[in-house]
Specification:
The protein is of the alpha+beta class. The protein folds into three domains: about 10-165, Beta-Lactamase; about 195-305; about 305-460, Heat Shock Protein 90 (2-Layer Sandwich). The chain has nine helices and 14 strands. The protein has helices at about 10-60, 75-80, 150-185, 185-195, 215-260, 270-300, 310-330, 345-365, 420-430, and strands at about 60-65, 65-70, 90-95, 100, 115-125, 125-135, 140-145, 310, 335-340, 340-345, 370-380, 380-390, 435, 445-450. The strands form four sheets. Strands 4-3-7-6-5 form a five-stranded antiparallel β-sheet, covered by helices on one side. Strand 3 and strand 4 (about 100) form a beta hairpin. The protein is rod-shaped, with a radius of gyration of 49 Å. The structure holds adenosine-5'-triphosphate and magnesium ion. Magnesium ion (MG) binds next to helix 8.
């Protein structure tokens, strides 16, 4: 069985093959017709001129006692059969077919009535000739033959003139058809570009209105499919959000009960077991929280909060304030370098983004280190960055840490591996770029989120 995928066909290629084939056929037909027309034209133009010497010779055939002979001086005969291009010969035969004058080896003319003339093609010494023959009332046949050089030249010239024009028209038609098809296929190109710019989470319907009727059904069908995908996606996300939400409450209860138990006098082995249970509960609780945050970050924009004009400075300072006590406990210097950076965004999600970045910075930076949260505009692009003096993320891992459930091997502490995936989701949703690199001065980590463009609106321009 041949598993090779069938080669994709190209409308343009097919059209070109068809057009070139048709044009070649058209030009060939035109060539045949033109040839016959040109031949007819050349013959009617030159036959008359060929008949004239035959008439002159016939007028000068005398029948006297010497017998039949041409009563013309040699010079006059030469003048009659002179031609610049072709070789002209003549022959005069008696009624009995005996040669009276001229070349002896020109074949006799076909039979025709006295007083008539005719033209026919023949050959003389292996060369094609055109013959004008006339039979006088007395039955004498005069034939004048000439080679075909000037006729062939005329036919050639007519043929070339006609064929060049036809070929130009054919080429022009092919070019126009090619141009037309390219223009006609432009909507497909627009569609392709629109699909290429889409991220996997962007399941919005494609624009239907300006599409030509040939593409519209395709777009409608595709939009229906996108609609089904959106529904399935929403159901899945709603399920995830509900499950995470439902899990959080019992886990929080369990954690609280375990913490209450710790206050009692407990045998050491029981306390150790309870501490393990408590650790697992904290981990599960964190996982549920992160799953819920991810589900929120992924939920379709129209189903979630509306976008609003937000200042990253406000969001960062509010979130960072919540982290100050923890930074103090961990003996980490949490500093800020905040400037206005106004964007169009979803403040709840942006707070979640800052939350995850500060959580990582505090979690992975050893005591005595420094964490700096910065906002502002760089070349008119609003940004938010969190940098720390921790161990840093090796360049090879910087792409992987954005994947879900990925933690660098040997990373201390508990974590679900979802924090940076949430950050990426939220950044993508805001059309922002996410960069992870090392800090310049220290070997730590700097995560920077650069947003598309500063919003200029009354009272909000920085
Ligand atoms: N500031 C940082 N310094 C050093 N390593 C980091 C930093 N931030 C992230 N990492 C590494 O990237 C991994 C992924 O981070 P991410 O925030 O996605 O997950 P997590 O922190 O392990 O879990 P959680 O979902 O609870 O945040 C971390 O496990 C850690 O190894
Ligand atoms: Mg994290």
């Amino acid at each position: 069985m041949n598993d090779a995928a069938p080669k994709p066909t190209s409308i343009r290629r097919r059209l070109l093959i068809f057009l070139i084939g048709s044009a070649a056929l058209m030009v060939s037909c035109a060539a045949i017709v033109t040839y016959w027309v040109a031949l007819h034209l050349a013959n009617s133009a030159y036959d008359r001129a060929l008949l004239d010497p035959a008439l002159d010779i016939a007028d000068n055939v005398r029948l006297d006692k010497v017998g039949a002979h041409i009563d013309l001086p040699e010079k006059a005969l030469e003048a009659l059969t002179y031609d610049q291009v072709d070789k002209v010969i003549f022959q005069v035969r008696s009624r009995e077919n005996a040669i009276i004058d001229g070349v002896p080896d020109l074949p006799p003319a076909p039979d025709f009535d006295p007083g008539q003339h005719l033209f026919f093609n023949g050959s003389y010494h292996g060369e094609k000739v055109r013959v004008a023959a006339l039979r006088s009332a007395s039955g004498i046949v005069v034939q004048v033959a000439e080679t075909l050089h000037k006729r062939n030249r005329l036919v050639g010239e007519i043929l070339i003139a006609e064929l060049v024009a036809t070929a130009l028209v054919a080429l022009g038609s092919i070019a126009l058809a090619w141009f037309g098809v390219t223009r006609g296929l432009l909507p497909f190109e627009h569609l392709r570009r629109e699909l290429l710019t889409r991220t996997p989470s962007d399941l919005r319907s494609l624009t239907e209105t300006p599409s030509p009727i040939e593409i519209a059904p395709l777009i409608i069908a595709f939009n229906q499919l996108l609609g089904h995908l959106r529904d399935a996606n929403t159901m899945q996300k709603r399920f995830l959000a509900n499950a995470a939400h439902q899990l959080r409450t019992p886990l929080a209860g369990l954690q609280m009960h375990l913490e209450l138990l710790f206050r009692r006098e407990l045998p050491t082995d029981v306390r150790t077991e309870l501490e393990r249970m408590h650790g697992a509960t904290v981990r599960a609780s964190r996982l549920a929280t992160q799953l819920l945050a991810l589900a929120n970050a992924e939920s379709a924009p129209q189903q979630g909060r509306e976008r609003e004009i937000v200042d990253l400075l406000t969001i960062a300072s509010a979130t960072a304030r919540d982290w100050a006590p923890r930074a103090f406990d961990l003996k980490i210097d949490l500093g800020f370098s905040l400037e206005h950076a106004v964007i169009l965004g979803e403040s709840v999600l942006l707070a979640e983004l800052v939350d995850n970045l500060i959580d990582n910075a505090l979690r992975y930076t050893p005591a005595g280190g420094r964490v700096t949260v910065a906002t502002g505009c760089d070349r008119d692009l609003p940004y938010l960055s969190v940098e720390d003096t921790g161990p840093g993320i090796p360049p090879a891992e910087r792409g992987k840490v954005l994947e879900r459930f990925y933690r660098i091997t040997g990373t201390p502490g508990e974590g679900s591996g979802l924090g940076l995936a949430i950050v990426r989701e939220i950044a993508e949703r805001h059309g922002a770029e996410l960069d992870i690199d090392a800090c310049n001065e220290h070997n730590g980590t700097r995560v920077r989120v650069t947003f598309p463009r500063k919003v200029r609106s009354e009272g909000l321009v920085v």
